[in-house]
């Protein structure tokens, strides 16, 4: 996994910032080094302009176009920081730091399963582009959906929604069971309950899985210990703590305790 992060904040030009679903925005910015160095599953720290919001907001890198130097992020408006980002227009600038964290480690196999939940969906797009073999993508949303056409260019896509507004009603795990999902490697990003259910699902079938955690973060660069998760060890306690921002956000399902 990659750990050669770029550590200086950059002021970047926003090329586009559009609402692609209710409260979900797609921002494209130009930054050559991030576009060239990003591995699927890495994230950027995005900074607010308001002085009252000094902590950066971690947002996954959805896709990159290295030749054009373009980086796309997709974010949901949940609080004041993301609200501020949603008001920015093409032609304005924003401060970002990245690429940060360790991303997914693509494994060459015949069939891969990718599972995204809500705002855990965006980082899987760059991954699905880069993975060899046949790819089965399972996306779960509360209501509606986004990025589906982009995924369809690379994979067979199945959708589940809590309210049944798109695809099958129920969880993404229900959907995987309904279609008999199969593959030799699983990659996932989404809320903790989804990742915990998937950990059980892959354990029962003895399929290796890489899970990306979206823990609440402070600094995002390993300095504040604000983002720890538990991982198994052979010690008496049976576990130790790792930092999601620096050691993750992607962890082996067999190692991480959810
Ligand atoms: C590695 C990683 C990748 C992420 N990728 C995406 C993505 O691609 N798209 C997306 O919509 N969201 C993503 N998130 C969640 C996103 O960071 C939060 O929704 C966002 O920081 C909320 O900021 P706010 O100011 O609007 O909300 P507030 O709740 O006002 O934020 C207050 C503080 O809490 C932190 N915070 C709040 N919610 C979260 C959260 N879920 N995860 C981490 N920190 C949080 C904020 O960074 C901020 O420091 C990701 C989180 C992590 C850790
Ligand atoms: S967010 Fe500060 S150490 Fe991870």
Automatic annotation (TrEMBL):
List each copy of the FAD-binding FR-type domain by range. Answer: 7-106
Residues that bind FAD, according to the entry? 57-60, 81-82
Cofactor: binding details: Binds 1 [2Fe-2S] cluster per subunit.
One GO biological-process annotation of the entry reads:
'de novo' UMP biosynthetic process
What does the entry list as the binding residues for [2Fe-2S] cluster? Answer: 219, 224, 227, 245
One Pfam family, short name? FAD_binding_6
Which pathway, metabolic or otherwise, does it act in?
Pyrimidine metabolism; UMP biosynthesis via de novo pathway; orotate from (S)-dihydroorotate (NAD(+) route): step 1/1
- Self-association state and partner proteins as the record states: Heterotetramer of 2 PyrK and 2 PyrD type B subunits.
Q: What is this protein called?
A: Dihydroorotate dehydrogenase B (NAD(+)), electron transfer subunit
What taxonomic lineage is listed for the species of origin? Bacteria, Bacillati, Bacillota, Clostridia, Lachnospirales
């Amino acid at each position: 996994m990659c750990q050669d992060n770029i550590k200086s904040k950059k002021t970047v030009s926003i090329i586009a910032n559009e609402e692609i679903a209710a409260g979900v925005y797609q921002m494209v910015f130009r930054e050559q080094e991030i576009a060239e160095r990003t591995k699927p599953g890495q994230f950027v720290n995005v900074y607010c302009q308001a002085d009252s919001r000094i902590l950066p907001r971690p947002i996954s890198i959805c896709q990159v176009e290295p030749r054009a130097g373009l980086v796309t992020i997709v974010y949901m408006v949940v609080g004041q920081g993301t609200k501020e980002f949603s008001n920015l227009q093409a032609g304005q600038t924003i401060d970002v730091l990245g690429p940060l964290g360790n991303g997914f480690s693509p494994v060459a196999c015949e069939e891969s399963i990718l599972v995204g939940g809500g705002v855990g969906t965006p980082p899987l797009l760059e991954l699905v582009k880069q993975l060899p073999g046949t790819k089965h993508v399972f996306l779960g949303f509360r209501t509606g959906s986004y990025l589906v056409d982009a995924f369809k260019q690379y994979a067979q896509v199945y959708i589940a929604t809590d309210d049944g507004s798109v695809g099958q009603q129920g969880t993404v795990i229900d959907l995987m069971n309904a279609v008999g999902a199969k593959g030799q490697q699983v990659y996932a990003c989404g809320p903790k309950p989804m990742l915990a259910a998937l950990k059980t699902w892959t354990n029962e079938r003895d399929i290796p899985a890489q899970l990306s955690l979206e823990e609440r973060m402070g600094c995002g660069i390993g300095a504040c210990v604000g983002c720890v998760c538990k991982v198994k060890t052979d010690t008496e306690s049976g576990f130790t703590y790792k930092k999601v921002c620096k050691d993750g956000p992607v962890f082996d399902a067999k190692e991480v305790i959810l």
